[in-house]
């Protein structure tokens, strides 16, 4: 039981990070119908930029407490990532807006390689230590059945707050309505006075900012950052977005949380469930079996709407 | 512009293609980190020595460390001037990246064979050295791995496979003895990274601790790109082991140690040479004080000229020695020694004299047994004090 509760907590931390990243994939897919494979790299750049900023601030203003440094660095990082994401859209996707579908996919992969290589040249190929600005001492809960660190609590709280804010933005504001209209029918939305280019740019910037936040979270949680750190979370978050129904914002959140929980419980129990035939190294299989089952039974994902194939 | 795109399909395609080519080219430039090769003097013959290690991915820093060691040796040799059979020889390093991936390893091996290298120093990992060794063996090119510790590497019946470190058949028991005798542990949990190296080392360790009567409470595996180990560690926490053994590299071992501490696990963590680097102190944070690890060779601080090497390395590359650069350094000298004795730079002739190697290198006495393993392999055990590696013990196995 103790182990089970602890696995739930582990899954929740992992899942809330996946959910944040998955939002970026799903929003872009919603408005453009393309998979932005450079999204994981934006996350990585976010983590590395914030690392440089933090190092700078620790040198220039060493008297500030750690959490304050993080609070100051976060908006700058998110702005940088938003700008980067905007640039990616302008450079790699907008010129290909009317090209065959394969072209933006390939330019996305090219962008991803390019960003990774640039990061490797700027920040070196060493794994870099990310300063521990948030408390990482274990806190015992429920009669020490569950151990959680302060930074993990903060990660879960921030992720949920940001997700609620995003939902409000998309469902209750003018901008949100414009985004939903663009997602439904770009040309009709344009006829109604929505500027699709502007909406698409803003969507990319929002996604980028969220990726930057997720990058800082991952680096804070694991205590290190490096130039390849965006790849695996990017892949996992993409899976989460598909699981929840790509294009659907609530779906991305649900998919992210589910994937985190499935992975955590899968790694913890797959050995016992299969009588030791499969070990914990098959934890990814567990997640992908669930994905395949969902796609077979509900091709549009858990919360995805059944829409005809869009351009 | 838009109209143009729509009208000419061909044009779209060509733009997409050129974009890809551009990106790959940029990528390739960044990845190889090649300095313009030092010009070969007009009166000298160029002899190429291949070097392979992961220069991208999680353990790129270790790959670069290995490459630096070989580069330092080659630069020194060129500076003093090398004469083989009355001809002036200029050595050049051909660095390749195998990305820690067995498939890529065989591709770059073939590339080196096609570039007509005289010999190869590498690869870094067991999981890449072993598949690549077949290609070098078919081409008759000597391969000296500075760091592959899986016993299988030299057991395949190839005449071309050599290594400058002890094997996991020695390293596993050395770690196991430490756990049973020094730590007096009664139960252990074992995790590996599911690579040929990590699993091999964990298996050797398991054999010895089992024979000593310890209880194996968990045997888990992750992978070499993982970042989150909390699920596995939570499972292990429930089994309350005295010691956790990890077979894997520092890029995964560091986060693993750190997350164990965050879960309130107090069991000692032991690991092999893959995680026994200076970088581990950064990667594991405070948790590094709880780690004991081994190196499959003489400790740098115990090498006769270790300090001097460290100084020259730092001067040249402006970074710290991670772990196996002294061994790539020696590998180049072993090859040059073979060239001198063979009086030739022909791969076949170098290979012929390799078994009689008898050399006092930086890392100690170098002589090979019939398989190509070191005759006098040693294992060094380390702990971390003040975030620095500090030698605990050097054992001859």
Outline the fold blueprint.
The complex is a heterodimer of chains A (311) and B (397).
Chain A: H1 2-32, H2 39-60, H3 66-93, H4 102-123, E1 128-129, E2 138-141, E3 146-149, H5 150-172, H6 174-184, H7 186-191, H8 196-222, E4 224-225, H9 231-244, H10 249-273, H11 283-297
Antiparallel strand pairs in A: 1-4, 2-3
Chain B: H1 2-7, H2 9-32, E1 45-53, H3 60-80, E2 82-84, E3 87-97, H4 102-114, E4 119-122, H5 126-139, E5 142-145, E6 161-163, H6 168-182, E7 187-192, H7 196-211, E8 215-221, H8 230-239, E9 243-247, H9 250-262, E10 268-271, H10 280-284, E11 291-295, H11 306-317, H12 325-342, H13 347-353, E12 359-361, E13 364-366, E14 378-385, E15 388-396
Parallel strand pairs in B: 1-3, 1-4, 4-5, 5-6, 7-8, 7-9, 9-10, 10-11
Antiparallel strand pairs in B: 2-3, 11-14, 12-13, 14-15
Word description of this protein:
The complex is a heterodimer of chains A (311) and B (397). Chain A is mostly helical. Chain A has helices at residues 2-32, 39-60, 66-93, 102-123, 150-172, 174-184, 186-191, 196-222, 231-244, 249-273, 283-297; strands spanning 128-129, 138-141, 146-149, 224-225. Chain A has a single domain (2-297), classed as ABC transporter involved in vitamin B12 uptake, BtuC (Orthogonal Bundle), CATH 1.10.3470. In chain A, strands 1-4 form a two-stranded antiparallel ribbon. In chain A, helix 1 (2-32) packs across helix 9, helix 2 packs parallel to helix 4 and helix 5 packs antiparallel against helix 8. The radius of gyration of chain A is 20 Å and the shape is globular. The model of chain A has no long low-confidence stretch (mean pLDDT 87). Chain B is α/β, with parallel strands linked by helices and 397 residues long. Chain B folds into three domains: 2-32; 45-165 and 305-366, Rossmann fold (3-Layer(aba) Sandwich); 169-295 and 380-396, 3-Layer(aba) Sandwich (Rossmann fold), CATH 3.40.50. Helices cover 44% and strands 21% of the residues of chain B. Chain B has helices at residues 2-7, 9-32, 60-80, 102-114, 126-139, 168-182, 196-211, 230-239, 250-262, 280-284, 306-317, 325-342, 347-353; strands at residues 45-53, 82-84, 87-97, 119-122, 142-145, 161-163, 187-192, 215-221, 243-247, 268-271, 291-295, 359-361, 364-366, 378-385, 388-396. Chain B has a seven-stranded mixed sheet with strand order 8-7-9-10-11-14-15, sandwiched between helices. Chain B is elongated. Residues 1-8 and 24-36 of chain B have low confidence and may be disordered. The chains are: A mainly alpha (311), B alpha/beta (397). At the A-B interface, helix 1, helix 4, strand 1 and helix 10 of A face helix 1, helix 2, helix 3, strand 8 and helix 8 of B.
């Amino acid at each position: 039981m103790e182990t089970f509760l602890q696995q739930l907590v582990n899954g929740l931390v992992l899942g809330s990070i996946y959910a944040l990243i998955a939002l970026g994939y799903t929003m872009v897919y919603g408005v453009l119908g393309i998979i932005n494979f450079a999204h994981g790299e934006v996350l990585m750049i976010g983590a590395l930029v914030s690392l440089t900023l933090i190092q700078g601030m620790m040198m220039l203003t060493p008297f500030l407490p750690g959490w304050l440094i993080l609070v100051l660095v976060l908006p700058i990082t998110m702005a940088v990532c938003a700008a980067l994401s905007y640039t990616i859209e302008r450079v790699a996707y907008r010129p290909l807006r009317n090209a065959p579908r394969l072209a933006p996919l390939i330019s996305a992969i090219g962008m991803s390689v390019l960003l990774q290589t640039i990061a490797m040249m700027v920040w070196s190929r060493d794994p870099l230590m990310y300063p521990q600005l948030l408390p990482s001492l274990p806190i015992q809960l429920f009669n020490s059945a569950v151990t959680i660190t302060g930074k993990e609590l903060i990660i879960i709280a921030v992720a949920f707050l940001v997700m609620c804010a995003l939902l409000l933005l998309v469902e209750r504001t003018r901008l949100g309505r414009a985004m939903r209209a663009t997602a439904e029918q770009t040309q009709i939305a344009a006829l109604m006075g929505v500027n699709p280019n502007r909406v698409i740019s803003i969507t990319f910037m929002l996604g980028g900012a969220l990726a930057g936040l997720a990058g800082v979270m991952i680096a804070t949680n694991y205590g290190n950052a490096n130039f390849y750190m965006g790849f695996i979370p990017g892949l996992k978050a993409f899976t989460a977005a598909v699981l929840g129904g790509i294009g659907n914002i609530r779906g991305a959140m649900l998919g992210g949380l589910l994937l985190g929980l499935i992975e955590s419980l899968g790694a913890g129990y797959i050995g016992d469930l299969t009588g030791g035939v499969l070990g914990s190294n098959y934890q990814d299989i567990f997640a992908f079996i669930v994905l395949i089952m969902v796609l077979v039974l509900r091709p549009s994902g858990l919360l995805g709407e059944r829409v005809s194939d869009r351009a | 512009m838009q109209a143009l795109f729509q009208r000419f399909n061909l044009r779209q395609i060509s733009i997409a293609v050129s974009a890809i080519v551009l990106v790959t080219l940029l990528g390739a430039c960044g990845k190889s980190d090649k300095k313009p090769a030092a010009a070969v003097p007009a009166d000298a013959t160029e002899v190429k020595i291949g070097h392979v290690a992961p220069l991208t991915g999680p353990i790129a820093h270790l790959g670069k460390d290995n490459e630096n060691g070989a580069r330092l040796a080659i630069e020194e040799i060129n500076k003093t001037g090398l004469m083989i059979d009355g001809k002036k020889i200029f050595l050049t390093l051909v660095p390749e990246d195998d990305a820690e991936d067995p498939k890529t390893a065989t591709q770059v091996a073939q590339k080196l064979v096609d570039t007509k290298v005289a010999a190869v120093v590498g690869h870094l990992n067991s999981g890449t050295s072993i598949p690549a060794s077949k290609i070098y063996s078919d081409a008759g090119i000597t391969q000296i791995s500075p760091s592959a510790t899986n016993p299988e590497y030299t057991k395949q019946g190839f005449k071309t496979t050599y290594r400058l470190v002890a094997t996991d058949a020695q390293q596993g028991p050395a770690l196991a003895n430490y756990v049973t005798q020094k730590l007096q542990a009664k139960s252990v949990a074992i995790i590996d990274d599911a690579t040929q190296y990590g699993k091999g080392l964990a298996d050797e360790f398991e054999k010895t601790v089992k024979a000593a009567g310890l209880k194996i409470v968990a045997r888990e595996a992750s992978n070499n790109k993982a970042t989150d180990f909390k699920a596995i560690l939570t499972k292990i926490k429930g089994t309350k082991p005295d010691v956790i053994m990890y077979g894997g590299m520092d890029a995964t071992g560091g986060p693993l140690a750190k997350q164990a501490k965050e879960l309130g696990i107090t069991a000692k963590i032991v690991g092999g040479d893959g995680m026994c680097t200076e970088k581990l102190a950064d990667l594991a944070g405070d948790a590094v004080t709880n780690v004991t690890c081994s190196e499959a060779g003489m400790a740098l601080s115990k090498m006769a000229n270790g300090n001097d090497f460290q100084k020259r390395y730092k001067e040249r590359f402006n970074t710290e020695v991670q772990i196996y650069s002294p061994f790539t350094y020696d590998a180049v000298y072993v090859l040059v020694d073979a060239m001198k004795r063979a009086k030739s730079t022909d791969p076949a002739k170098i290979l012929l004299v390799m078994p009689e190697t008898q050399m006092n290198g930086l890392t100690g006495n170098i002589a090979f047994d019939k398989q190509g393993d070191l005759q006098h392999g040693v294992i060094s055990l380390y702990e971390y004090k003040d975030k620095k590696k500090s030698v605990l013990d050097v054992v001859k196995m």
